[in-house]
Amino acid sequence: MASKQLWQWRGLAEDGDPRQGLVWVDNKLAALECAREDGVHPLALKRRAIRLSLWRAQYSSELMQQLATLLQAGLTLSESLQLLAEQHPVPQWQALMQDLARQLAQGQSLSLAMQAWPEAFPPLYHAMIQAGEMTGKLDYCCAHLARQQEQQQRLNQKVKKALRYPLMILLLAVLVVIGMSVFVLPEFAAIYRTFNTPLPVLTRWVMAMSSAVQRGLPLLVCLTIMPFILRPILQRSPRWQMLRPQLWLALPMVSGLIRGRMLSQIYTVLALTQNAGIPFLQGLESVEKTLTCPWWRSVIHQMSESIAQGSAIWQAMAQQTVFTPLCKQLVRTGEVSGSLDKMLENLAHYHSEQTHQQADNLATILEPVMLLVTGVIIGTLVVAMYLPIFHLGDAISGG
Question: Which parts of the sequence belong to the Type II secretion system protein GspF domain (predicted)?
Answer without folding.
Answer: 64-186, 268-388
